[in-house]
Amino acid sequence: MVATTTTGMFLLCFDALCPCFGSKRKDGSEDPVLARGATSSSSFELRSISDRISGSPLRVPPSPSRFSLSSPPSRNDPLNLSLEQVIKLTRNFSPALMIGESYFGKAYRVDLQDGLVVAIKRARKEHFASLHAEFRNEIALLKKIEHRNLVQLLGYIDKGNERIVITEFVANGTLRDHLDGQHGLVLGFGQRLEIAIDVAHGLTYLHLYAEKPIIHRDVKSSNILLTEGFRAKVADFGFARIGSTEPGQSVIQTDVKGTAGYVDPEYLRTNYLTVKSDVFSYGILLLEILSGRRPIEVNRGAREKITVRWAFEKYNKGDVQSILDPMLTESVNEDILNKTFDVMFQCVAPTRADRPPMKEVVEKLWKIRRDYAKTQNRAEVAL
């Protein structure tokens, strides 16, 4: 359950694809964040997005406890496994134990004798040389971070022609799998809001509270793992970068890496990366959580192919209900939806200066969660 990356070319131009950001809302007022012209961007190598078939959904039982504060994270001790032990535990990397596949390689579920379950990621031999930087990068960063909403590193092996990462096992699969209905469940609106808050907490920690600011660079639904209790954890730090630590300097210049549809258009155009690039990706993810749609819907018509453009057209007409995932059958208060989509569109503002920091996003979503809980309580009393 790590990021998949294949090579391909993708040209993303917000002036051409999303002119909606310069339009006016239904009430005739111009949104100060959305009214500015979008910037065009350059082409770059990105992974392709595979389509999945949705399963038959069932309701996920409501979780009132999801509205309470999280308990402190339970941490596992570091593991010192030898390559020989890993080969034995994975039954020589048996396909029967494989739980995911990506550009980096394949991931396996392993049950240790003490009852601990871990995920073991093995680098692909064909990408061994090119993945060396990503491997070292992920290890260096994961060793320094500790947060309940970030996947925990337990160990690694860098020996001969084997590169292996050992992390905590997150049992409930990826967020994208759940949005596709592959687990036979439909996430309720409250659960989606909680997942969004969890991810925002994880990114806030990376940007503000890690030893040095960390920019993830590949925030997307397939890099969000869910626990059995539907807590979200951000995974895959192969593309992550340390942000600028120079006083008064907030950007670093680097080659563009990420996933088509999620990448900051300013980063695409200029190669300048900041924490606000993660904020843009997060906004796209938030829209995906709410709508169930991928950022780029390759099989839809031209007006719906770019999800953020399609969503803004609906939002601009005051039709926010139709943006919601059709698998969501519950009725959600329209004021709650408007506030949530307001946050989302602020995050995907074409210019990074207009995007809020992740800490502010968390604060806004907490208020929305509080208001949503009140509407749910009133609805229950009415019954």
Automatic annotation (TrEMBL):
Enzyme class: transferase
E.C. designation(s): 2.7.11.1
Gene3D superfamilies the UniProt entry points to: Phosphorylase Kinase, domain 1, Transferase(Phosphotransferase) domain 1
Coiled-coil regions, chain positions: none
GO molecular function: ATP binding; protein kinase activity; protein serine/threonine kinase activity
The keyword Ubl conjugation belongs to this UniProt entry's keyword annotation: no
Domain Protein kinase: start-end pairs: 93-367
Region described as Disordered: spans on this chain: 53-76
Keyword list, A-Z: ATP-binding, Kinase, Nucleotide-binding, Serine/threonine-protein kinase, Signal, Transferase
Reactions that this protein is recorded to catalyse: L-threonyl-[protein] + ATP = O-phospho-L-threonyl-[protein] + ADP + H(+); L-seryl-[protein] + ATP = O-phospho-L-seryl-[protein] + ADP + H(+)
Family matches, as Pfam families: PK_Tyr_Ser-Thr
GO cellular component terms given for this protein: plasma membrane
Biased segments, Low complexity type: 65-74
Signal peptide feature range: 1-22
Record protein name field: non-specific serine/threonine protein kinase
Organism: Brachypodium distachyon (Purple false brome)
Gene symbol of the encoding locus: LOC100827233
